[in-house]
C-alpha cells in the first residue's frame, strides 16, 4: 500500500487561476519524497490537498488507502500532519504548551496521556524550555519547531510539510533534517515541498518534479542528474551533480564529495573524465 495516492487531481482557485492539472502520483510509505518545483508550480496547493484543507474539485486523494472526503476528515487529519510554510498560520494559543495540546485535547485523551504527549513532542523538537512562552515572541526556527511539535503530538503516520526548511539558517535546517530522519526511521512517511534542488538531491529518497501545475516526472533522487528535465522545470542542476557530471562517482553530500578529494593535491581520487 502507498502512503498517498493522487489520481487525476485538478484544482482551480476561485479567481480562476489554474493551480493543478491532472496530477497523478503515488507516494511510497516510510520514504522522504520531495515535491520540487519553481515558484507557482503548484506545490503548496498539492500539499494542502493531502489532508483535505483543500478538498478535491476533480480527481481523488487517498491517504493510507482511504479516499479523502468530508465523511472521514477527522481520521485523515489524524493520519496526516500538515505543516504550513508560515508557522504563524499554525500557532494561535497563548502558550506553546497550549498550542501543542490543542490537537490531543480534541482527541479527548485523558489529561495524563495528553500532558505526556505534549512533553514528548516538546522534547522531540528540542523546545522543552519554551513551553510557557507565547508563540508570537519566538524566532522563526522556534515557531517551526512548535508547529511541528503540535503535529507530532497527534502521532501522524504521514507528514506533509510545505517548505519546512525555508528561512532557516543552515544549522537549524540540519537539526530539522535529523529530527525528520528519526521520524522516518520510526516508520513515518514524509512528503515535503521545496524549490531547493541541492536539498532534494542530497536528502530525499524520491522526487516529484512539478511545472505549471503538472507533474513533469517522478522517481528517485537520481532524476536530478538529468539536466534536460530540470531545465524544463526551470530549476538548476544540483551543484554536486554539476561538479561530478563527468565522473563515475556521484556524491550526494559535501561530506561524501570531500571524501573523494585527495588531501594535498586537491584532485579527485577517482575522477573518470578521461575515459
Ligand atoms: N489563494 C490563491 N488564489 C488564487 N491563486 C492562487 C492562490 N494560491 C496560489 N495561487 C496560484 O496557484 C498557482 C500555484 O500556486 P502554489 O500552489 O502556491 O505554488 P508553489 O507553492 O509551487 O509556489 C500559482 O499560479 C499561484 O499564483
Ligand atoms: Mg508554495
Report the count of strand segments.
Answer: 10
Q: What does the overall shape look like?
A: globular
Q: What strand line-up does the widest sheet have?
A: 6-7-8-3-9-10
Total of domains: 2
Order of helices and strands: EEEHEEHEHHHEHEHEEHHH
Radius of gyration: 20 Å
Task: Tell me the structural class.
Answer: alpha/beta
* Major sheet characteristics: 6 strands, mixed
CATH architecture of the largest domain: 3-Layer(aba) Sandwich
What share of residues is helical? Answer: 25-40%
Strand content: 15-25%
The CATH topology annotation of the largest domain reads as Rossmann fold
Bound molecules: adenosine-5'-diphosphate, magnesium ion
Distance between the termini: 43 Å
| The CATH superfamily title of the largest domain | P-loop containing nucleotide triphosphate hydrolases
Amino acid at each position: 500500500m502507498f502512503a498517498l495516492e493522487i489520481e487525476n487531481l485538478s484544482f482551480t482557485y476561485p479567481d480562476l487561476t489554474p493551480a493543478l492539472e491532472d496530477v497523478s502520483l503515488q507516494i511510497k510509505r516510510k520514504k522522504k519524497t520531495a515535491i520540487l518545483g519553481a515558484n507557482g508550480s503548484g506545490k503548496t496547493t498539492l500539499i494542502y490537498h493531502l489532508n483535505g484543507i483543500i478538498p478535491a474539485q476533480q480527481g481523488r486523494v487517498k491517504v493510507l488507502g482511504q479516499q479523502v472526503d468530508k465523511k472521514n476528515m477527522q481520521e485523515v487529519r489524524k493520519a496526516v500532519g500538515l505543516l504550513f510554510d508560515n508557522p504563524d498560520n499554525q500557532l494561535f494559543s497563548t502558550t506553546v504548551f497550549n498550542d501543542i495540546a490543542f490537537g490531543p485535547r480534541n482527541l479527548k485523551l485523558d489529561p495524563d496521556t495528553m500532558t505526556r504527549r505534549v512533553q514528548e513532542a516538546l522534547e522531540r523538537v528540542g523546545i522543552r524550555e519554551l513551553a510557557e512562552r507565547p508563540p508570537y515572541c519566538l524566532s522563526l526556527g522556534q515557531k517551526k519547531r512548535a508547529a511541528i511539535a503540535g503535529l507530532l503530538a497527534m502521532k501522524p503516520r504521514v507528514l506533509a510539510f510545505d517548505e519546512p526548511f525555508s528561512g532557516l539558517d543552515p544549522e537549524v535546517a540540519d537539526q530539522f533534517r535529523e529530527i525528520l530522519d528519526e521520524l522516518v526511521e520510526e516508520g513515518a512517511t514524509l512528503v515535503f515541498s521545496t524549490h531547493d534542488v541541492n536539498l532534494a538531491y542530497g536528502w530525499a529518497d524520491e522526487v516529484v518534479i512539478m511545472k505549471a501545475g503538472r507533474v513533469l516526472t517522478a522517481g528517485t533522487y537520481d532524476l536530478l542528474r538529468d539536466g534536460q528535465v530540470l531545465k524544463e522545470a526551470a530549476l538548476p542542476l544540483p551543484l554536486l551533480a554539476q561538479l561530478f557530471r563527468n565522473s563515475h562517482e556521484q556524491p550526494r553530500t559535501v561530506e561524501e564529495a570531500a571524501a573523494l578529494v585527495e588531501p594535498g593535491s586537491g584532485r579527485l581520487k577517482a575522477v573518470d573524465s578521461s575515459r
